[in-house]
Write a structure and sequence with these properties.
This protein is α+β, with helices and mostly antiparallel strands and 376 residues long. It has two domains: 217 residues, Hypothetical protein, domain 2 (Endonuclease III, domain 1, Orthogonal Bundle), CATH 1.10.340; 132 residues, Alpha-Beta Complex (Nucleoside Triphosphate Pyrophosphohydrolase), CATH 3.90.79.10. Helix content is 40%, strand content 11%. The protein is built from 14 helices and seven strands. Strands 1, 4, 5 and 6 form a four-stranded mixed sheet that branches. A three-stranded antiparallel sheet has the order 3-2-7, with no helix packed on it. It is elongated, with a radius of gyration of 25 Å. The protein binds iron/sulfur cluster.
């Protein structure tokens, strides 16, 4: 049986209305401007709010700005994005990382066009039906685009609330309590501005290592400040170390210099993106003999198979990848392969290649140029 959940901590001796009005007054005195943010009183465009929220997931605002500018210039309305080719969207997304967000963006645009008559759902439950929209993004879009009193909780908000109420239980266990406390403050009036304001407070004032408490509109009520424990909050449970997965990639070249690229399955990690084909990525290292049974072309169609020197390492959010590379040339005519293309490395930019694959390509080209230099 699940343990009894602790009741939320006592709030500071200030009422939510006072905290909200102090925060909004601070926000109104001056706040950061972003391309995607409508000023108070201006009409908001749900498409722009949604696009920005998806781009900002795990990504800094400064990194997002040029991408947001390009996307909105190229696909100014939801219908434009829905009509775009997935490859074009993935390509424009290159460098923003977490490519599943781009695929979900595209799927969601089509879903809104086809199933919701081109109008975004306005509440959190409706928004969560869209691919790529989790609880945080649904609340942010509901509050900012539609003025719904939704409680927005991202990492910045978690920090502010943990400090304001001196929540000393570690994350992630404390998430539920923090959310409940955050919900006690969410106002019915100006919920979009309030969402911006509390996130900005966390980003600009209540910073992780050195909170600027003297400039904080909630300093008068902050329990962590009173107790001198602000920089220790929120506490976090120690993370387990990231596991390593191993794979062998196949750099297969045709006589005309083209290299085999393959599209990954739509679902799963780096879904729908092009890759240098490889074995599975598994916990145990591969032997060369094992890997050669997995080549995308039959062994009879390959010659000069060789293991290239070096290992390509890449960090994903939940594991480390170590790839070795087998290079080979093709023999005779090659039949078209399903979900694959032959492409010269100088044209790889035409495809959405994830960073791990771009790293791998650079490595192979470097190894090849060193080998050519030796031969010269
Ligand atoms: Fe954060 Fe300091 Fe403000 Fe408390 S007083 S919310 S610790 S910036």
């Amino acid at each position: 049986m699940a343990g009894k959940r602790k009741a939320p901590r006592k709030r500071p001796e200030t009422d939510p209305a006072r905290l909200v009005s102090a925060l909004l007054a601070w926000y109104d005195r001056g706040h950061r401007s972003f391309l995607w943010r409508a000023e108070t009183g201006e009409p908001t465009d749900p498409y722009r709010v949604w696009l920005a929220e998806v781009m900002l997931q795990q990504t800094q605002a400064a990194t997002v700005e040029p991408y947001f500018r390009e996307f909105t210039a190229r696909w100014p309305r939801l219908e434009d994005l829905a009509a775009a080719e997935l490859d074009a969207v993935l390509h424009a997304w290159q460098g923003l990382g977490y490519y599943s967000r781009a695929r979900n963006l595209h799927r969601a645009a089509r879903l809104v066009r086809d199933e919701f008559a081109g109008r975004f759902p306005e509440d959190e439950a409706g928004l969560r039906q869209l691919p790529g929209i989790g609880p945080y993004s649904a609340a942010a879009i509901a509050a900012i685009a539609f003025g719904k009193p939704a409680t927005v909780v991202d990492g910045n908000v978690e920090r502010v609330i943990a400090r304001l109420f001196a929540v000393t239980d570690p994350l992630p266990k404390a998430k539920v309590a923090i959310r409940e406390l955050a919900a006690t403050l969410t106002p019915a009036h100006r919920p979009g501005d309030y969402a911006h304001a509390i996130m900005e407070l966390g980003g600009a004032v209540c910073r992780p290592a050195n909170p600027a408490c003297d400039a904080c509109p909630w300093a008068f009520a902050c329990e962590a400040r009173k107790q001198g424990i602000a920089t220790t909050l929120p506490k976090r449970q120690r993370k387990a170390t990231r596991p390593t997965r191993h794979g062998i990639a196949f750099w297969l070249r045709r006589g005309d210099g083209a290299v085999l690229l393959r599209r990954r399955p739509e679902r799963g990690l780096l879904g729908g993106m092009m890759e240098i084909p490889s074995t599975d990525w598994r916990p145990g290292a591969w032997t060369l003999a094992e890997a050669l049974k997995e080549t995308p072309l039959p062994p009879a169609k390959l010659c000069r198979q060789r293991l290239l020197p070096g290992t390509v390492r890449h960090e994903f959010s939940h594991f480390r990848l170590e790839l070795q590379i087998v290079a080979a040339e093709t023999r005779g005519r090659t039949r078209p392969l399903e979900n694959a293309v032959w492409c010269r490395p100088e044209r790889f930019g035409d495809y959405a290649l994830p960073s791990a694959m771009r790293k791998l390509t650079r490595h192979v080209l470097e190894v090849e140029s060193v080998a050519l230099g030796r031969r010269a």
